[in-house]
C-alpha cells in the first residue's frame, strides 16, 4: 500500500508535558500500576509490596512515546520509568467520537520462561514492543471473530455448509507489518446468509459501535466521470455528514468510481484529524467472485485450527516463542499466523475490480458467480435490518424500537445504481440525487421534475383538480417523460431495462427523493444539508402510524445537525408541545446537554421539560463524555474504579471531602430522579467539561444564584493552576472573572431590592452548595468583583465598626480619640453612638403561619437616656467597643508607631554587644542588654507569636503566602531571629551581622506599616500604584544593569590601563621595556567591582565627572560616557516613565475593585486579631489557652454521657463533613429567602443571557434607565394626584435613616 493510503505512526519521540499529563490520568496511571502488581503477584517475579506501589506511583514518568492512528481511535505507546532503574511499556487507546482514554495493555515478555512486565534501560526497542502489542490485539480479535462465526454458523459458499475460513485483516501493500500499517477487516460469506446474521456479526464479531445514521453511497464505477471541483464538494459534504452524526458509510467496496472518491475522502479526513484519532466506519458490501485477486484473501485450512481451544493454546505457545526471540524477527510471523493478508492486485482484469484500500471492513458474498448485481438485494436487506437492530429506548417503562435514520446518496451511476435506488425507495429509504454528476443521477433528477410533489396526496387537497385538467396534465407529463427517456436512450442502451421501475418509484415515493445541485441556492452547495432534508422528508412521509415516533426522529436529526430554527418553527411550537411525551422530551434534553446546544436546552426547558426529571443514569451518561480533550485537567490519585465525577470532585473540592470519595450516585438507583439538585449537578458537570456557555445558562437555573457563579469561579481558578498550557490558563482565568462579575451583579441586584436581606444572604450558608457561605467561597476563589460589590462593602462596614453607629459625623476621629486616650481603659467610649443588632422573624406573604429565615436589623442606641430609646449598660458598651475591628486597628496603629520609634532608638543609640564585662547598661551595673532593647525583644516575639497564630489558623498555606504583607511579616521575623541569635555572641563579626540584620529588619517593619493605609481609599490606591510600578522598576533594573556593566567595565578598564601597564622608552624614542604593576599580580580585588559600579551608576542619574587624560583610552572612554548617558537618561528612563504611566492608568481603572478587595482582607485580618495589641496580647493567649484546657477537660468528662452531634450550619469550606453534606443525598428545602433570591436573579439572567455579548457597562446603563423611567412614572402619578406643586419625598426610608443618624 502506498503512503497515501496509510495512517503512519510518528517516530519514537521524547515525552512532552502533554503526554506526561495524559499518562497521569488515574484511569491510566493507576490501572497500569494495578495491572503490573497483579501480573507479578501471579507470576511471583518481584514480590511487589504496597511500599513498591507507592514508589512506582511517585516515580511515574514517561520517557519515550509514539502514536499510531488505528480504527476507531488512536493508540499511544509509552515507555514509563517507575523507579529503581525499571521501566514498563504501556499502551493507551483513545476512542474516536467520544475521545475516551483507556488503559489498553501492559507489555509482557518472558525471561527464563517466566512472564515479566518490567525492563531495564537496555531494553528500549519500542517499535518491536509496539508490534508485539499489535500482534496480541490481532490475535484477540481473531479469536472473537472465529467464535462468532461458529455461533452464527456463517458459511463460506452457497453450495457448501462449511464454515467460512476466509476472514482476517487486509494489508494493501507488500511491506512488512509494522506499527504504521493500517489494516482493514474482511470476511467471505455465503449469499444465502441472512441480513440478521450479517448485522449481528458486524456488531459482535467486528465490534462496530451503534451508529446514529447510516449513509449508503451508490453510483458509477468504471465509467465514472466528474469534475475536480464537484469531487471536492461531494467529499467534503459526505465526510461532514458522517462525522457530525457518528454514521456508518456503506458502499460497494470497489476501487473505482464514486466508491473510490468516498475512500479518498475518508483518507484525507484521517490525515487531517490524525491527532484526534477519529475514524469513520466504512463498510464495503460486494461480491466475492467480482473481487479481483480474491485468491489472495483465501487461506489454506491447515493454518487455522478448527478447535477453539487448540487455537488458543497454539497461539499462546507461538507468542511465548516469539517473545523469547529477537524483536526484529516478529514481523513475518505476525502477518502469517494472525490472518493479515497482503492484498495487492498488480493486473487489472475485465469485469472484475479490486477492493478500495481506505474502507475499514468488507463483506464479500460468494454465490459462485462473478456478477456484482447479485449482491444488491441482500445489501438492501442488510441496510434495512441495521435500522431495526441498533437502537432501543425506554418510554414509560416500555421498551420501544426506534429506527436508525438511513439515507442513500446517488452519484452518477448506471443500471445497477438505478436498481439499487429503486430497492431503497421501496424500503422507504430516502435518496439524495447529486445532479450534474452524470448518467443515472441526471436522469433521475430530470424525471423527478416531471412528477408534481402533491400528486399522490390528493386526499389532503382542499380544491381537487377537475378530471379534464388532471388528464391533460397527465398527457403532457407522459410526453415529457418519453422525451427524456428517448434522449437518454441514445447514450445508454439500458434505459428500457429500468424505466418502468424507476418511473413507478418516482411516482409513488416522490417525497423520499431530494435533488442536490452543487451550485444551487437551496442547499448552498452543502451536501450535508441535502442529506438532512432527505431525512426530514423520510420522517414525515415514512408511513409510520405512530406520529410520536416521527416527531422524535425529526427532533433527533435536528439535534444532530443543530437545526434550531427548524425545531423552533416546526417541531416544538405552542401547537405541537401538547402532543409530546415527557420521556421523549427528557431524552432530547439529555442529548442537547451532551452535544452542548444551549439554544436547544433553553427551548426544551421553556416548553416545560424540567431538569429535575433527569435521572441518575442520565447524569452518569453525561459524565461519560468527561474524558474529552476539552475537559478541565485532573490531578488526583484515586482508585481504579472511581467514576469521573468522583475524580473531578476530588481534584477541585479536595478540601470539601477530606480525602473521602464523594460519589453520592453510587448508593442511588439509576432510575432515581435528580430532583431539586439537578441544576447544581448539571452546572458543575458543564463546568468540569469546560462548556462555559452551557454552564452560564445552567447557572441561571440553580438555586442560590449568587453562590453558583462563585463555585464555578473556584473550579476555573484551580484548573488554571493545574494546566500547563498558557493559553488555556488565560482562558480559565477569563471564565472565572466572568463568573465573578455575574455573582457581583446578582448580589448587588438583591442589595438594591432589599439591603438587609442581601447582607444577610452573605452570612447565610448555602444549603444547595454544601453549606458554604458566599463570603467564604468568594475569598477562597479570589472573586474580587464580588467582594468589591456594594452589598459586600456594606457588610464590611457593619463588620468594621461592629456595634458603633458609623453613620454619625466624624466617627473616625471620635473612635480614634477614644482609642488614643487611656487605650486600655477607654472611658470615653461611653459617649459613642451604638447600634444594637437583633433578628426579626419575617412571615411569608403566601403563608402567614410560615416563618422565613431571620433577617438582621439595627436599632440605634443614643449615648444618653433618651426617651423611646433602648438603654445600653456601660459594660455592654465596653464590650461593643473592644469587639469592633476598627478599634483594634487603631490600637495596632498606635502600637506600630511606638514600636518603630523604640526600634529606631535602639538601633541608633542603645544597641551594644552582650555585656560580659560588668559595664553599665541603661544606668544599671552588670545589666547584659539595655532596658529599651528588652522591651523591643518582647514586642518582636509577641509579633512572631501573632504571625504564627495566623499561619496555623489559615485554611491554606498557599493563600497565606500569596499576600505580600504576610511574606513581609515572615521575612521580618526570620531576619529578627538571625539578628537575635547572633547578638548573644561576643564577637565583632557576629555583632556586625546581628546589627546588619536588625537594620534590614527595621526597614521591613517600616514597609509593613504601609498596609495600615489600605484602610483608607485615597491612601490605599496610591499604595497599589507604588507596588505595581515597582514591578516595572525591577524589569528596568535588569535592562539598565546590562548597559551599566557593559559601559562601566569597558570604560574602567580603559581609564586604568595607564595605572596597570607602563611603556618604557629610550631617549631616542625607542621602546626598551614594558612593565606591569605588581608584576601583573594582585590587580583584582573586590574593591574593583565596587569602583566599576560606582563609576557607572551615577551616570544613570546624569552625574558625569570629567575624564582626566589626553590619551586614546580617555578619548574612547569619553565617547562611551556620552553614549551611555544618552541611552540611560534619554531612552531607558523615558521608557520607564512611560511604563509607570501605563501601569498607573491600569491601576486607576481597577482601583475601585482593588481597594475594596484589600479592605475586605484588612477587615478580616483585624476581626480575628486579639483584643489587645502586642505586647499585651500575651495575656490574651494565656486566657485562651486556659479556656481551652478547661473546655477540653469538661468534654472528656461528658463524652461518655452524650452522643456526638455534628452541626453543618456554619462550617468552614475546608471542614465540611462529607457524610452529611456530600455522600448522603438529601433533598434540600427551598426556603422563602431562596425563592426571593431566585426571583431577583431571574431578571438579571433574562437580560444577561439575551444580551450576552454586550458589555457589563451597557447592562448597568440599562438598569439606570429603567430606574429613571420608574421615577418619572412615580413623579407623573404624584403630579396627577395632587393639585399643588409640593411633592412628598420619594424615599421615606432614606430620610428616616438620616434622621436617626
UniProtKB/TrEMBL annotation:
Chain segments annotated as coiled-coil in the UniProt record: none
Bilayer-spanning residue ranges: 813-835, 889-914, 964-986, 992-1013, 1033-1055, 1116-1142
Residues of the signal peptide: none
Ranges for region Disordered: 1279-1301
Residues annotated as domain TRPM-like: 578-635, 669-788
Keyword Mitochondrion part of the UniProt annotation: no
Domain Ion transport: from-to ranges: 891-1151
A GO term from the CC aspect: plasma membrane
Location of the TRPM SLOG domain: 185-313, 340-455
Keyword Iron-sulfur in record: no
Cell location: Membrane
Name of the protein described by the UniProt record: Transient receptor potential cation channel subfamily M member 3
Lineage: Eukaryota, Metazoa, Spiralia, Gnathifera, Rotifera
Amino acid at each position: 500500500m502506498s503512503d497515501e493510503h496509510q495512517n503512519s505512526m510518528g517516530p519514537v519521540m521524547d515525552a512532552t508535558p502533554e503526554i506526561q499529563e495524559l499518562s497521569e490520568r488515574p484511569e491510566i496511571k493507576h490501572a497500569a500500576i494495578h495491572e503490573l502488581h497483579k501480573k507479578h503477584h501471579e507470576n511471583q517475579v518481584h514480590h511487589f509490596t504496597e511500599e513498591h506501589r507507592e514508589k512506582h506511583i511517585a516515580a511515574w514518568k514517561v520517557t519515550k512515546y509514539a502514536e499510531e492512528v488505528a480504527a476507531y481511535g488512536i493508540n499511544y505507546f509509552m515507555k514509563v520509568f517507575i523507579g529503581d532503574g525499571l521501566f514498563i511499556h504501556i499502551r493507551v487507546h483513545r476512542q474516536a467520537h467520544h475521545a475516551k482514554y483507556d488503559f489498553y495493555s501492559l507489555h509482557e515478555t518472558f525471561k527464563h520462561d517466566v512472564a515479566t512486565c518490567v525492563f531495564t534501560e537496555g531494553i528500549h526497542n519500542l517499535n518491536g514492543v509496539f508490534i508485539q502489542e499489535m500482534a496480541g490485539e490481532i490475535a484477540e480479535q481473531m479469536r472473537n471473530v472465529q467464535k462468532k462465526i461458529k455461533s452464527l454458523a456463517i458459511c463460506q459458499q452457497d453450495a457448501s455448509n462449511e464454515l467460512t475460513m476466509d476472514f482476517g485483516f487486509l494489508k494493501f501493500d507488500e511491506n512488512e507489518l509494522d506499527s504504521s500499517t493500517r489494516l482493514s477487516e474482511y470476511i467471505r460469506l455465503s449469499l444465502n446468509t441472512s441480513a440478521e446474521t450479517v448485522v449481528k456479526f458486524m456488531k459482535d464479531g467486528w465490534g462496530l459501535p451503534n451508529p446514529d445514521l447510516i449513509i449508503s453511497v451508490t453510483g458509477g464505477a468504471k465509467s465514472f466521470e466528474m469534475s475536480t471541483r464537484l469531487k471536492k464538494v461531494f467529499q467534503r459534504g459526505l465526510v461532514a455528514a458522517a462525522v457530525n452524526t457518528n454514521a456508518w458509510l456503506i458502499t460497494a467496496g470497489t476501487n473505482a468510481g464514486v466508491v473510490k472518491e468516498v475512500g479518498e475522502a475518508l483518507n484525507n479526513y484521517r490525515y487531517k484529524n490524525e491527532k484526534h484519532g477519529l475514524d469513520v466506519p466504512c463498510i464495503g458490501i460486494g461480491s466475492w467472485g467480482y473481487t479481483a485477486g480474491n485468491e489472495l484473501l483465501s487461506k489454506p485450512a491447515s493454518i487455522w485450527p478448527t478447535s477453539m481451544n487448540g487455537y488458543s493454546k497454539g497461539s499462546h505457545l507461538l507468542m511465548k516463542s516469539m517473545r523469547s526471540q529477537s524483536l526484529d524477527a516478529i514481523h513475518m510471523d505476525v502477518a502469517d499466523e494472525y490472518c493479515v493478508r497482503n492484498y495487492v492486485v498488480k493486473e487489472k482484469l475485465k469485469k472484475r475490480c479490486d477492493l478500495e484500500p481506505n474502507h475499514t471492513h468488507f463483506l464479500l458474498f460468494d454465490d459462485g458467480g462473478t456478477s456484482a448485481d447479485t449482491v444488491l438485494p441482500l445489501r438492501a436487506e442488510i441496510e434495512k435490518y441495521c435500522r431495526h437492530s441498533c437502537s432501543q429506548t425506554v418510554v414509560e417503562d416500555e421498551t420501544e424500537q426506534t429506527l436508525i435514520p438511513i439515507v442513500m446518496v446517488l452519484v452518477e451511476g448506471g443500471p445497477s445504481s438505478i436498481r439499487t435506488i429503486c430497492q431503497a425507495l421501496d424500503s422507504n429509504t430516502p435518496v439524495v440525487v447529486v445532479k450534474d454528476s452524470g448518467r443515472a443521477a441526471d436522469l433521475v433528477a430530470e424525471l423527478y421534475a416531471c412528477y408534481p410533489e402533491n400528486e399522490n396526496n390528493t386526499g389532503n387537497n382542499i380544491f381537487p383538480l377537475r378530471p379534464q385538467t388532471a388528464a391533460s396534465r397527465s398527457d403532457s407529463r407522459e410526453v415529457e417523460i418519453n422525451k427524456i427517456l428517448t434522449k437518454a436512450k441514445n447514450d445508454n442502451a439500458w434505459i428500457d431495462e429500468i424505466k418502468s421501475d424507476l418511473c413507478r418509484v418516482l411516482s409513488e415515493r416522490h417525497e423520499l427523493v431530494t435533488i442536490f445541485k452543487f451550485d444551487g441556492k437551496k442547499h448552498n452547495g452543502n451536501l450535508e444539508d441535502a442529506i438532512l432534508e432527505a431525512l426530514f422528508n423520510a420522517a414525515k412521509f415514512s408511513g409510520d402510524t405512530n406520529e410520536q415516533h416521527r416527531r422524535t426522529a425529526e427532533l433527533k436529526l435536528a439535534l444532530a445537525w443543530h437545526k434550531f430554527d427548524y425545531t423552533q418553527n416546526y417541531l416544538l411550537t405552542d401547537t405541537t408541545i401538547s402532543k409530546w411525551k415527557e420521556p421523549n422530551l427528557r431524552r432530547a434534553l439529555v442529548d442537547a446537554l451532551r452535544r452542548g446546544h444551549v439554544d436547544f436546552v433553553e427551548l426544551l426547558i421553556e416548553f416545560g421539560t424540567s431538569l429535575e426529571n433527569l435521572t441518575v443514569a442520565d447524569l452518569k451518561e453525561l459524565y461519560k463524555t468527561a474524558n474529552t480533550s476539552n475537559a478541565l485537567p485532573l490531578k488526583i490519585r484515586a482508585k481504579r474504579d472511581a467514576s469521573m465525577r468522583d475524580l473531578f470532585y476530588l481534584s477541585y473540592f479536595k478540601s470539601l471531602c477530606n480525602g473521602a470519595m464523594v460519589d453520592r450516585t453510587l448508593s442511588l438507583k439509576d432510575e432515581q430522579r435528580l430532583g431539586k439538585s439537578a441544576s447544581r449537578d448539571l452546572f458543575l458537570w458543564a463546568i468540569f467539561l469546560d462548556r462555559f456557555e452551557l454552564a452560564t445558562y445552567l447557572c441561571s437555573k440553580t438555586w442560590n444564584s449568587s453562590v453558583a457563579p462563585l463555585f464555578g469561579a473556584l473550579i476555573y481558578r484551580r484548573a488554571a493552576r493545574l494546566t500547563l498550557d498558557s493559553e488555556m490558563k488565560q482562558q480559565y482565568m477569563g471564565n472565572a472573572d466572568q463568573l465573578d462579575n455575574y455573582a457581583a451583579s446578582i448580589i448587588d441586584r438583591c442589595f438594591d431590592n432589599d439591603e438587609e436581606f442581601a447582607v444577610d444572604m452573605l452570612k447565610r450558608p448555602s444549603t444547595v452548595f454544601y453549606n458554604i457561605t458566599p463570603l467564604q467561597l468568594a475569598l477562597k476563589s479570589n472573586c474580587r468583583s464580588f467582594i468589591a460589590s456594594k452589598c459586600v462593602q456594606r457588610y464590611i462596614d457593619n463588620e468594621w465598626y461592629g456595634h458603633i453607629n458609623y453613620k454619625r459625623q466624624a466617627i473616625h476621629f471620635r473612635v480614634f480619640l477614644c482609642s488614643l486616650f487611656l487605650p486600655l481603659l477607654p472611658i470615653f467610649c461611653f459617649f459613642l453612638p451604638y447600634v444594637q443588632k437583633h433578628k426579626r422573624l419575617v412571615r411569608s406573604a403566601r403563608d402567614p403561619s410560615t416563618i422565613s429565615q431571620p433577617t438582621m436589623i439595627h436599632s440605634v442606641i443614643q449615648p444618653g437616656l433618651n426617651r423611646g430609646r433602648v438603654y445600653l449598660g456601660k459594660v455592654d458598651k465596653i464590650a461593643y467597643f473592644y469587639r469592633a475591628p476598627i478599634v483594634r486597628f487603631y490600637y495596632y496603629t498606635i502600637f506600630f508607631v511606638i514600636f518603630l520609634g523604640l526600634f529606631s532608638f535602639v538601633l541608633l543609640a542603645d544597641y551594644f554587644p552582650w555585656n560580659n564585662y560588668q559595664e553599665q547598661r541603661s544606668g544599671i551595673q552588670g545589666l547584659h542588654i539595655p532596658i529599651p532593647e528588652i522591651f523591643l525583644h518582647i514586642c518582636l516575639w509577641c509579633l512572631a507569636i501573632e504571625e504564627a497564630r495566623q499561619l496555623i489558623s489559615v485554611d491554606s498555606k498557599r493563600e497565606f503566602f500569596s499576600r505580600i504583607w504576610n511574606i513581609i511579616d515572615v521575612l521580618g521575623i526570620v531576619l529578627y531571629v538571625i539578628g537575635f541569635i547572633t547578638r548573644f555572641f561576643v564577637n565583632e563579626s557576629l555583632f556586625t551581622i546581628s546589627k546588619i540584620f536588625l537594620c534590614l529588619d527595621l526597614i521591613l517593619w517600616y514597609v509593613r506599616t504601609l498596609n495600615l493605609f489600605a484602610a483608607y481609599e485615597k491612601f490605599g490606591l496610591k499604595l497599589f500604584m507604588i507596588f505595581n510600578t515597582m514591578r516595572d522598576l525591577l524589569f528596568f533594573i535588569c535592562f539598565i544593569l546590562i548597559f551599566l556593566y557593559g559601559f562601566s567595565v569597558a570604560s574602567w578598564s580603559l581609564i586604568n590601563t595607564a595605572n596597570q601597564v607602563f611603556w618604557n622608552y629610550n631617549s631616542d624614542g625607542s621602546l626598551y621595556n614594558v612593565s606591569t604593576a605588581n608584576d601583573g599580580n594582585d590587580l583584582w580585588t573586590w574593591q574593583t567591582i565596587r569602583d566599576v559600579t560606582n563609576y557607572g551608576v551615577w551616570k544613570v542619574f546624569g552625574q558625569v565627572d570629567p575624564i582626566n587624560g589626553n590619551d586614546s583610552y580617555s578619548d574612547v572612554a569619553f565617547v562611551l560616557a556620552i553614549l551611555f548617558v544618552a541611552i540611560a537618561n534619554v531612552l531607558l528612563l523615558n521608557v520607564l516613565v512611560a511604563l509607570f504611566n501605563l501601569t498607573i492608568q491600569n491601576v486607576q481603572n481597577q482601583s475601585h475593585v482593588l481597594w475594596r478587595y484589600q479592605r475586605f482582607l484588612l477587615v478580616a485580618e483585624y476581626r480575628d486579631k486579639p483584643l489587645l495589641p502586642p505586647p499585651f496580647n500575651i495575656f490574651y493567649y494565656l486566657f485562651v489557652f486556659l479556656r481551652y484546657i478547661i473546655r477540653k477537660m469538661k468534654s472528656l468528662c461528658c463524652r461518655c454521657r452524650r452522643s456526638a452531634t455534628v452541626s453543618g450550619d456554619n462550617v468552614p469550606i475546608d471542614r465540611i463533613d462529607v457524610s452529611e453534606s456530600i455522600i448522603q443525598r438529601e433533598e434540600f428545602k427551598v426556603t422563602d429567602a431562596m425563592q426571593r433570591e431566585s426571583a431577583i436573579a431571574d431578571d438579571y439572567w433574562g437580560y444577561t443571557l439575551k444580551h450576552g455579548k454586550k458589555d457589563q457597562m451597557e447592562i448597568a446603563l440599562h438598569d439606570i434607565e429603567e430606574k429613571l423611567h420608574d421615577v418619572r412614572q412615580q413623579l407623573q402619578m404624584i403630579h396627577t394626584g395632587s393639585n399643588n406643586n409640593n411633592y412628598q419625598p420619594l424615599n421615606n426610608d432614606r430620610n428616616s435613616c438620616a434622621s436617626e443618624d
